[in-house]
Amino acid sequence: MLKNTLQKIGLTDKEAQIYLASLHLGPSTVSAIAGSAPKLAGL
Fold it and tell me: What is the reported pTM?
């Protein structure tokens, strides 16, 4: 999974979740990204 690849290059679990949520949502507020990150953790 992409999340595992991000972790292999040095991101923490939470950093990878936030990064993936940001990519998925595009321009968004911090609260929207933070709220979506746990839901997208399985990507």
Answer: 0.76
